[in-house]
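User: Hi! I have a protein structure encoded as tokens and I'd like to know what sequence might fold into it. I'm fairly new to this, so please keep things simple.
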């Protein structure tokens, strides 16, 4: 029978006490070959699965101290999901109602997670200006005004946001790295993380370089605001919680690089991060590649985990739909050519066997026999990259039957038109459709220059794979 409620050192009073203290992990595989150490702050290990747990509790406690949030009150917040989750967890313990207003590009997992914690979710369109009445910012404003006793913490303007990172994230980075951190790389959403943590670190060592990772389409790195797919990072306006003076440089990262980097992190390091973590890590890898000092340490903040993105970043179907992965079966002609060269490497077959227009037919026959090929591009005597015609076993045999002295003739006298050319980036299925009638092979070009030949058999074998 339970008889004592005295505090035990190993027992937390509530799940809120488990927030923070996330590990700093060396990314030895992702950072292989780089001079500095590459380390990651794994914020997915917070109770709510993201760095926003730190902020959520700070926002609520600041509102309680100020008297802005009364018992039984309603918290209304525009959020990409993670702050809403942190607020919902704290609200469960403190007796508040939570309404999270989210843009419609957010994953279904985030919406389901918020509802699992008891939050109410309102979804607003993404592709509207921030001052539009339909934007999730303005919808949240309207709900906060209409609901009696409602309070909007406003993570975009509330100083408790960066203060939470100045009080916890920054000191943890400094202590865990034993003061060796030389570069901090973080995405910028509300700007709270990079402002608070970056400011603390620079107070300890002004030489620390703070790098902001920003998606294309965000205003922070100087571009025009436009839609992008990565969630929870970047903005289409400048929040009051972001202090640009803390940031030394920006690195802009595409959606594709963000998502592929996140997937690579899972494969190599066993760390499942969100797309915004991929944004930050891609930037951190660029920074680390530029640093030659082996004593340097590049720290990247991975703000959340990948379980909220299983239907997106970690879904092959979704990634393929948006062009971030090649469609299954849509091999490129260049892939077939590369495979052909790899297979024939032991036989020392050159990537492309050609014959000059002024050479003799006997030379072409010898090349056909030597390399076991059936087609040869004929190139100009003055420029070996200019294809002027072609010769093949069938054509030469046809000419030889009519004129036995053919072997001594110049190739220019008997050559046929050049082979039909395709780019190395063309799909294999499209190339197969070009092999009609007597056409048996295609010339493959890369950047407009001849790179090799693929035959009907090569392409059909690729499709069979």
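Assistant: Happy to help. Inverse folding works backwards from shape to sequence: for each of the 465 positions I chose a residue that suits the local structure. Here it is:
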């Amino acid at each position: 029978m339970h008889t004592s409620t005295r505090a035990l050192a190993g027992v937390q009073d509530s799940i809120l006490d488990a927030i923070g203290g996330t590990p700093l992990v060396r990314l030895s595989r992702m950072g292989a070959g780089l001079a500095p150490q590459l380390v990651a702050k794994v914020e997915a290990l917070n109770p709510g699965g993201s760095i926003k747990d730190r902020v959520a509790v700070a926002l609520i406690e600041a509102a309680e101290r100020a008297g802005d949030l009364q018992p039984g009150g309603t918290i209304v917040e525009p959020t990409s999901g993670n702050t809403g989750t942190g607020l919902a967890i704290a609200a469960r313990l403190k007796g508040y109602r939570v309404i999270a207003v989210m843009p419609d590009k957010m994953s279904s997992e985030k919406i389901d997670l918020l509802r699992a914690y008891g939050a109410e979710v309102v979804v607003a369109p993404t592709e509207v200006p921030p001052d539009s009445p339909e934007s999730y910012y303005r919808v949240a404003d309207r709900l906060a005004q209409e609901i009696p006793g409602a309070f909007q913490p406003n993570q975009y303007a509330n100083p408790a946001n960066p203060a939470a990172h100045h009080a916890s994230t920054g000191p943890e980075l400094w202590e865990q790295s034993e003061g060796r951190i030389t570069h901090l790389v973080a995405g910028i959403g509300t700007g709270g993380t990079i402002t608070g943590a970056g400011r603390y670190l620079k107070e300890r060592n002004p030489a620390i370089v703070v790098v902001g990772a920003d998606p294309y389409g965000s205003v922070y790195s100087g571009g025009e605001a436009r839609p992008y797919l990565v969630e929870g990072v970047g903005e289409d306006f400048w929040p009051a919680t972001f202090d640009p003076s803390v940031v030394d440089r920006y690195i802009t990262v595409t959606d594709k690089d963000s998502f592929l980097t996140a997937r690579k992190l899972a494969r190599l390091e066993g760390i499942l991060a969100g797309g915004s973590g991929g944004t930050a890590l891609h930037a951190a890898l660029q920074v680390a590649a530029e640093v030659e000092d082996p004593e340097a340490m590049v720290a990247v903040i991975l703000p959340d985990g990948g379980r909220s993105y299983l239907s997106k970043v970690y879904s092959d179907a979704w990634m393929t739909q948006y062009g971030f992965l090649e469609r299954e079966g849509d091999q490129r002609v260049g892939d077939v050519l590369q495979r052909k060269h790899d297979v024939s490497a032991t036989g020392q077959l050159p990537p492309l066997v050609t014959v000059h227009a002024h050479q003799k037919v006997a030379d072409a026959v010898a090349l056909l026999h030597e390399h076991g090929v059936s087609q040869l591009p004929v190139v100009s005597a003055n420029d070996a990259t200019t294809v002027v015609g072609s010769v093949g076993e069938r054509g030469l045999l046809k000419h030889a039957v009519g004129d036995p002295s053919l072997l001594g003739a110049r190739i220019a006298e008997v050559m046929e038109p050049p082979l039909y050319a395709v780019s190395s980036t063309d799909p294999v299925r499209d190339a197969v459709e070009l092999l009609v009638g007597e056409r048996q092979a295609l010339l493959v070009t890369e950047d407009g220059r001849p790179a090799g030949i693929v035959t009907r058999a090569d392409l059909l074998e690729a499709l069979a794979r």
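A useful reference point when you look it over: The first strand starts at residue 24 and ends at 26. Feel free to ask if any position seems puzzling.
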